From TrEMBL:
This is DA1-related protein 2. The keyword Zinc applies. Gene3D superfamilies: Cysteine Rich Protein. It holds the Pfam family LIM. Keywords: LIM domain, Metal-binding, Repeat, Zinc. InterPro entries: DA1-like (IPR045218), DA1-like_dom (IPR022087), Znf_LIM (IPR001781). Residues 113-173 form the LIM zinc-binding domain. Residues 41-54 have a biased composition (Basic and acidic residues). Residues 404-425 have a biased composition (Low complexity). GO terms for molecular function: metal ion binding; ubiquitin binding. It comes from the Eukaryota.
């Protein structure tokens, strides 16, 4: 999405210029205008002076005649004449100034102009015309800050007027990383990046300036927050850190609850498959030594291992200090192959729901191998594994269940409830932020663009929605494809 960058031009439909400092009036379009107060010419002033002198002489003559009358009559007449003279004098000095020769008379009759701001009559003096209305200069105010608009230009939005700076503050998008106005590009348009799920808006430059990005939820680190470094090139935001699983021991209850989830769908895994939480480097080394399987690049978070290897696992969770997580205790572990599946490996430090989604995916790989699903194409095997990962997430996130879950057996809810009781007792129930993370992980599965994980998932989910999980698996066993 792109935004127009120049909201605040001096002319045009969105902003109009007003000037009150020039000698001649400025007409703004057909309805906006600004007038200077009327002024007196030199001839007007000399004529006024002559009239004032004549009036003073008349008053003096009248007063001298009153001295010849009786005292009572004279006193009464003198007082009234004083009042009359004073009234005439004041009336003369406050007489309306002549209209300037350039002013259209039809705009000046007294009582014909009412200020649209204070609703009172506009007398003689400076005033502004805008949008078919008139304003005292002090009543022409910004709709945002409510202070008078004194600049030569202002911004207009609908029927509301703004300072240019206030309009920019309200409408120009700000970067949610550096909290500055997003700059315009070379052709004058406001260009920014926006995360498709979180809708986080940010400057394009932050994709290349080493701004930390959460390895779980993908949000960029804001300037007023601090992400936690996991020590292997990854970092975690505080929301994801809240439910992160850091060592193999802490992950065991989650692992067994997902095995129960499979058993509840009549997909029991009879073999005891070891599960280890491992650092990033250990997982990458295991991938290089694995001959079987298709891996999601550029970042693989889990692995269903078939070969015998020695793998470094996380045995004790790290502690946190100013530098991030320190004190990780690892231990090399020899994995011996006793069946088609040697072990399941998952990256440490990921939120509980993401760790569970990875485990559900890798356990489906194990189930397929243990049940003689051989030589499946990547889009078929990865697609059906993603379906099981998505279904498990649906069972964990309230309000996210769709027809795929409904098509599975009713015992699915029993499996999910067993894990829910464990998670509630261990974590006190899932928070709103954790449920939002679960929705994001489902969104990632649904919108994956890769041929195997993305297109494979969508084909598999369409088959499960139409025929159910059991019939889809039977069709895959005999044909190696999804039912149409």
């Amino acid at each position: 999405m792109k935004w127009l960058s120049k909201f605040f031009k001096g002319t045009g439909a969105s902003s109009r210029g007003v000037s009150t400092g020039s000698q001649q009036p400025q007409f703004l379009g057909d309805e906006n205008m600004a007038w200077r107060a009327p002024f007196r010419s030199s001839d007007d002033r000399s004529r006024a002076n002559r009239e004032k002198e004549e009036l003073d002489r008349a008053i003096a003559l009248s007063m001298s005649e009153d001295l010849k009358r009786p005292s009572g009559y004279n006193r009464w007449r003198t007082n009234n004449d004083d009042d009359l003279a004073r009234s005439l004098h004041d009336s003369f000095n406050s007489a309306p100034l002549p209209f300037p020769s350039y002013a259209p008379r039809e705009h000046y009759p007294r009582g014909s102009r009412t200020c649209a701001g204070c609703k009172r009559e506009i007398g003689y003096g400076n005033y502004l015309g805008c949008m078919g209305a008139f304003f005292h200069p002090e009543c022409f105010r910004c709709h945002s800050c409510r202070y008078p608009i004194t600049e030569h230009e202002f911004s207009l939005s609908g029927r509301e007027t703004y300072h240019k700076s206030c309009f920019k503050e309200l409408n120009h998008p700000k970067c949610e990383v550096c909290h500055q106005f997003i700059p315009t590009n070379d052709i004058g348009l406001i260009e920014y990046r926006c995360h498709p799920f979180w809708l986080q808006k940010y400057c394009p430059s932050h994709e290349h300036d080493n701004t930390p990005r959460c390895c779980s939820c993908e949000r960029l680190e804001s300037r007023n927050t601090r992400y936690i470094s996991l020590g292997d090139g990854r970092c975690l935001c505080l929301e994801c850190m809240e439910s992160a699983i850091m060592d193999t021991g802490d992950c065991q209850p989650l692992y067994h609850s997902i095995r129960d989830y499979y058993e509840g769908m009549n997909m029991r895994i009879n073999q005891e498959i070891p599960m280890l939480l491992v650092p990033r480097q250990a997982l990458n080394e295991a991938i290089e030594g694995e001959k079987h399987g298709y891996h999601h690049m550029p970042e693989t978070r889990g692995l269903c291992l078939s070969e015998e290897q020695t793998v470094t696992s996380i045995m004790r969770k790290p502690r946190m200090d100013r530098r991030g997580l320190v004190g990780i205790r690892t231990q090399p572990q020899k994995l011996t192959r006793r069946c088609e599946v040697t072990a399941i490996l998952v990256l440490y430090g990921l939120p509980r729901l993401l760790t569970g989604a990875i485990l559900a995916h890798e356990l489906m790989h194990g189930w397929l191998r243990l049940n003689d699903f051989r030589n499946l194409r990547p889009e078929v095997e990865e697609g059906i594994c993603q379906v099981l990962s998505h279904m498990w997430l649906e069972s964990e996130v309230p309000g996210s269940r769709n027809t795929a879950s409904a098509s599975s057996s009713s015992s699915t809810s029993m499996a999910s409830s067993s894990f829910s009781s464990w998670s509630s007792s261990k974590k006190g129930g899932k928070s709103i932020a954790e449920n939002k993370l679960g929705s994001f992980f489902m969104h990632q599965i649904e919108h994956d663009a890769s041929p195997a994980y993305g297109e494979g998932y969508r084909s598999a989910m369409a088959a499960v929605n139409k025929y159910g999980l059991r019939r889809t698996l039977d069709h895959i066993r005999y044909t190696g494809t999804f039912p149409e």
